[in-house]
Design brief:
The complex is a heterodimer of chains A (878) and B (115). With 878 residues, chain A is α+β, with helices and mostly antiparallel strands. Chain A is built from 29 helices and 24 strands. In chain A, helix 5 packs across helix 14 and helix 12 packs parallel to helix 15. The longest helix of chain A is centred in the middle third of the chain and has 37 residues. Chain B has a single domain, classed as Orthogonal Bundle (Arc Repressor Mutant, subunit A), CATH 1.10.10. In chain B, 50% of the residues lie in helices and 14% in strands. Chain B has four helices and three strands; from the N terminus they run αβααββα. The chains are: A alpha+beta (878), B alpha+beta (115). At the A-B interface, helix 1, helix 2 and helix 3 of A face helix 2, helix 3 and strand 3 of B.
């Protein structure tokens, strides 16, 4: 229906109603006159008999079903009109709201995608991940292959599958490149409930040693190297120097702890770890069988753990198995960060709402007489309240709309901006749940800031509201306005203190000594030519060649190899003890062990405390030697100088090994996390003494570390060219400078600080706008009073102080309340962010003056304006 | 003697209006009068509730209305029952009758009206 027709229809309806009622009254009064009543008396009685024409009209309009719609349209038009009259107010309110709702929506979209949406596998709630557990070391992810095979055979309530890392160099088809890979058990795809895009998954008979090599390739690799041709199935792929038959293509976006390009059957792996019950390098995923609940599976796992511990006490004593929902595992510790950010954004939105509420309230108060008049003329109180709420709902909705628009634009950049990889990032979209949230947030905001003005619609005391002038009404909203300002400042204090805490913690974390000299060091993973790794002698020679070639590159000062690099992913932990008699199984202390070449200390700049580091003479056949860090020395022997002492490391043989040197501790787990990590003892052993059977495996995890005399990133290209090797098929990848790694270890803290800083800044700005607005309004209402004061001899200074005092009272009340809240938040934060330091006085001492100064500035403007008021004008006002 | 006036039980106003209108198209004022006459003054339409009720019934499609001239030559809004309105009237009247019978039984008043 077009506008004019609706209007015409409405006015006709009104005319008919009027006519109908007039007819009734006319008839009635005629009849009464016929009975002898005087005309005016008859008319009056007829009107009374009907129950008051205007009231009846209102009820009739109500009785028509479209009433609410008409009112809504009317209110809507009214709201638009009022906003048009004050475009400045509308623009500011809309902008604040759009920012608040937009930011909240982005945060919720991320939470929705990462935490709330079920995994994109069928029946995702039945998928679990298995963890090992011992009393001493808590939970860990790894299982040994024999344990996996036993558990898979015995356990009835779970369908189990396994995977482990297994990247390598693809030399055909396409350019030689190193790719990430996974070794998976045959039923991994069926356990997850997905099928390859083309071809098939592995058959159980392919998941055994000695069978024909087969591979499943990722969608990306298929597109890149096989041109997305379905005929790729059955073609050959040269991976790690051996031909693999491609049997399947994984669905696009398929991930197992990150993306991988090549999947091979786990059972075909032949390295010695596969038979070692103490080598816990396998990840387990399982699906609950139909009609089995998690507790039952858990009970069966406990039983299995006990069974294995009895059968293999040496390796499995005290070891039990736990099952957790898979989703929980994938998301990890992002959960707390996300909720933390959503709460912070929510606080900003709340401040924005309070701000708008106080603006709307100020307007409602100045309209009080108008409203009282309308009530006196027959407007229902509910009707007027509805009108106020419509106004704020329009504002809320418009703000929400803009906010969603903002969120649509910014959700992708935000996810990309996330430090490290945000788990399930590809699933962050604006879906219906996010839209419902955004609408809910806008409605809630609208209700929140519309409620105060709506509740002020006069109910009682109409006459007094009508009789008095604006002057005396002004004071009546003062308490509510003050409450708004106080709560705004309190919220801003909470955000400021939180940002201050993060900033201070980050500062003290950055100044921690990482234990290595991070300047001018480049690290990179490295894959030898697949042809060079046939036997141990060849492997050693190939690595020596890498070292020699790297040394020749201009700008290289020293070069070393290491299996683990500080602050980068990857670890190798070994149990050790200091007496010939071993402690009970699984109770030995654990140290982080890295296998390095002699120049490692020089490259990393780790200080040597006692004894010596390795030399080229520490090789296969000479006496086994190790170097430990001060932490291990202190922890195991109670003293720092432990050169010449011996320790037993079962993984390196039954004989004790001599400690030849003590070096400084390296914060391997990151600047923030190292203090809280489980494994803080560190051991170094010479790569040259790695026994031959393990060499092939070690070779696959070695990295190269280079100290340079020029900026380390400048050396990447020359180094890469030099190290291609004779066959041109050696690959250097994942180049990182140590500075990058150290920075990345604080990325989460820095990211949080940045966001909290922005939020706190916004909060501060909004709170200042709020206090300015309220004081300006309240002072404006007091102009006549100020006029009187000035006429009676108050100086401009007195007036200034009068207004400032009012502002100060609000500010200090807000700071007081905020400090209490901030103290509570300060207790919460350290449990959520590692490396956070608890609140202390200095954080408050720095942040609160900033807020007070800003707020005072905001209140100074209206105070100054009031003090310059001309008393005669002031007195004449109103 | 003036008979005691009773308040209308909830929901019966609509039924009475439908019944009155069922006799033929009639305008609002006449409905009010007829309700009062027929009930011999016992039933009084609450002040101000007749017209809202008429509009509500019209809105629900139980009544239709036409503007027609009265005998005195003035234009008035005449209400008439729609088919839906007649069904509603029958249904409500029947259920009302059942209620009266049941209450009568409980109070020991036979159908004839004497104990």
């Amino acid at each position: 229906m077009t506008w004019w027709r609706r209007l015409w229809w409405r006015s006709q309806m009104e005319a008919h109603l009027e006519k109908e009622l007039r007819f009734h009254i006319d008839q009635h009064s005629e009849q009464l006159m016929a009975r002898g009543l005087a005309p005016d008396k008859a008319r009056r009685q007829a009107r009374l008999g009907l129950g008051g024409p205007e009231q009846v009209k209102e009820k009739c309009r109500d009785a028509r079903g479209t009433r609410w719609l008409e009112d809504l349209l009317q209110d809507f038009r009214y709201a638009l009109r009022t906003f048009r009259q004050r475009p400045g107010f509308a623009a500011i309110a809309l902008l604040t709201l759009a920012l608040g709702i937009g930011a909240t929506t982005v945060m919720f979209a991320v939470i929705n995608g990462v935490l709330l949406r079920p995994l994109s596998y069928p029946e995702p709630h039945r998928l679990v991940t298995l963890h090992g557990f011992t009393e001493e070391f808590g939970e860990f992810w790894g299982f040994s292959n024999p344990d996996f095979r036993d558990a898979k055979r015995e356990i009835r309530s779970l369908a189990m599958a396994a995977w482990t890392y297994g990247g390598g160099t693809i030399s055909k088809p396409g350019e030689p490149e190193y790719v990430d890979g996974r070794k998976i058990s045959a039923d991994l795809f069926s356990t997850l409930g997905i099928a390859p895009l083309y071809g098939r998954a592995f058959r159980p008979d392919e998941d055994q040693p000695g069978t024909a090599p087969v591979a499943i390739i990722s969608y990306g690799l298929w597109q890149r190297d096989f041109g997305g041709d379905p005929a790729a199935i059955g073609k050959s792929l040269i991976f790690e120097g051996a031909p693999y038959a491609v049997v399947g293509v994984a669905p696009p976006g398929f991930q197992l702890s990150g993306e991988a390009e090549v999947f091979t059957p786990l059972g075909q792996a032949t390295d010695p770890r596969m038979q070692n019950r103490e080598a816990r390098f396998i990840h387990l995923i399982a699906r609950l069988r139909p009609s089995v609940a998690l507790p039952k599976a858990q009970a069966e796992l406990m039983l299995m753990g006990r069974h294995l511990a009895e059968q293999y006490p040496k390796s499995n004593a005290g070891l039990s198995m736990l099952a957790h929902p898979l989703q929980q595992e994938l998301v990890g510790d992002v959960r707390s960060t996300l909720w933390l950010l959503l709460s912070a954004v929510g606080l900003v939105l709340l401040i924005a709402c309070v701000n708008i509420a106080s603006l709307l309230l100020a307007r409602a108060v100045s309209r009080e007489r108008e409203l009282a008049m309308r009530v006196a003329l027959g407007a229902g109180r509910g009707r007027l309240a509805r009108q106020c709420l419509t106004e704020s709902a329009v504002l809320g909705f418009a703000g929400g709309l803009l906010g969603v628009l903002l969120a649509t634009i910014s959700v992708r950049p935000f996810v990309a901006f996330w430090p490290g990889a945000l788990p399930r990032a590809e699933e962050v979209h604006l879906d219906w749940r996010v839209l419902v949230f955004a609408i809910g947030a806008s409605l809630f905001s609208g209700l929140l800031f519309g409620l105060a003005p709506a509740l002020r619609v006069p109910a009682r005391g109409l006459e007094s509201a009508l009789r008095v002038g604006a002057r005396s009404i002004a004071g009546s909203s003062r308490r509510l306005h003050s409450a708004f300002v106080v709560s705004e400042i309190a919220l801003a204090v909470v955000l400021l203190v939180a940002a201050g805490m993060l900033g201070r913690s980050l500062l003290s974390l950055s100044s921690l000594d990482p234990g290595v000299n991070v300047r001018n060091v480049l690290t990179a993973r490295f894959a030898l030519s697949p042809g060079a790794v046939a036997n141990p002698e060849q492997i050693r020679a190939a690595w020596q060649d890498v070292l020699d070639r790297a040394r020749r590159v201009p700008g290289v000062e020293s070069v070393a190899l290491a299996d683990i690099i500080p602050m980068r992913e990857g670890e190798n932990s070994l149990g050790y003890w200091t007496t010939p008699t071993p402690p009970p199984p699984n109770q030995a202390p654990i140290a982080l062990a890295s296998s390095v070449t002699p120049d490692y200390l020089k490259v990393m700049g780790i200080p040597l405390r006692y004894g010596r580091f390795f030399t080229d003479h520490d090789r296969m056949g000479s006496e086994m030697v190790i170097v430990v860090d001060e932490n291990l020395a202190q922890h195991a022997f109670g003293t720092k100088d432990v050169v010449g002492k011996r320790i037993w490391i079962p993984e390196m043989g039954a004989a004790p090994i001599e400690i030849v040197g003590v070096v400084g501790h390296v914060r391997h787990w990151g600047l923030a996390a190292d203090d809280q990590s489980r494994v803080r003892d560190q051991i170094y052993y010479p790569f040259a003494q790695v026994p031959a059977p393990l060499l092939h495996f070690f070779s696959s995890v070695m990295s190269i570390a280079v100290r340079t005399t020029i900026p380390p990133l400048d050396i990447v290209e020359p180094l890469r060219r030099e190290l291609r090797g004779a066959g041109g098929d050696q690959a250097m990848y994942e180049e990182r400078t140590m500075e990058q790694l150290v920075n990345a270890s604080l990325a989460r803290q820095r990211f949080l600080l940045l966001l909290f800083g922005i939020f706190a800044g916004l909060a501060l700005l909004l709170a200042c706008i709020g206090i300015y607005g309220v004081l300006a309004y309240l002072t404006g209402q007091r102009v006549p009073e100020i006029g009187v004061r000035m006429a009676l001899g108050a100086s401009a200074r007195d007036v200034l102080w009068l207004v400032l005092r009012q502002g100060l009272a609000l500010i200090f009340a807000g700071v007081g309340a905020g400090t209490l809240a901030a103290l509570a938040v300060g207790r919460l934060l350290p449990s959520l962010v590692s490396g956070m330091q608890p609140t202390d006085v200095s954080t408050f001492a720095i942040t609160i003056p900033v807020l007070v100064a800003a707020a005072l500035l905001a209140s100074f403007v209206p105070a100054r304006r009031a003090s310059r008021a001309d008393p005669t004008c002031a007195l004449r006002q109103d | 003697m003036t008979p005691a006036k009773s308040d209308l039980p909830q929901g019966t106003l609509d039924l009475l209006i439908l019944k009155v209108i069922a006799l033929g198209p009639v305008h609002g004022y006449a409905i009010a009068q007829r309700l009062e006459q027929v009930s011999r003054g016992v039933v009084q339409v609450p002040e101000g509730s007749l017209y809202p009720a008429l509009h509500r019934l019209e809105n629900r499609g139980l009544l239709a209305a036409d503007w027609k001239e009265t005998e005195t030559g003035r234009e008035a809004k005449f209400y008439r029952l729609t088919r839906k309105g007649r069904r509603q009237l029958d249904a409500e009247a029947a259920s009302w009758q059942r209620l009266i019978d049941a209450i009568g039984l409980i109070l020991g008043i036979a159908d004839g009206g004497t104990p």
